Amino acid sequence: MLKNRIFLIGLGLGIMIGALLFQLMLSGEQSREKLAERDNETTDKLYTQIEVDALLKAERDSIELDQDVGSEASKQETQPAVTPVPSAEPPNKVEETAESPTVVPENEKAVINHVIRIKAGIGLSKTAELLTSNHIIDDGAAFIAEMKKSKKLVRAGYFLFHEDSTIEQVITVVTSQPLTEEQAAALSSAKNS
Question: Domain containing 56: what range?
Answer without folding.
Answer: 49-108
